[in-house]
Task: inverse folding
């Protein structure tokens, strides 16, 4: 777990995303693949939560 809040909307993917929200999973494992990128900066991936 990353943020400690309960997962409700993406419950069916809870185990797939390492028991995290999808956003938490993205920031933990995908966001910094291309360098040290702050969490409030778009990382360039089309599904980045910052873009939304």
Result:
């Amino acid at each position: 777990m990353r943020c400690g809040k309960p997962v409700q909307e993406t419950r069916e993917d809870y185990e797939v995303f390492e028991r995290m929200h999808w956003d938490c999973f993205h920031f933990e494992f995908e966001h910094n693949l291309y360098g040290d990128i702050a969490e409030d900066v778009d990382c360039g991936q089309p599904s980045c939560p910052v873009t939304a």
Observations:
- Residues 1-52 form one domain.
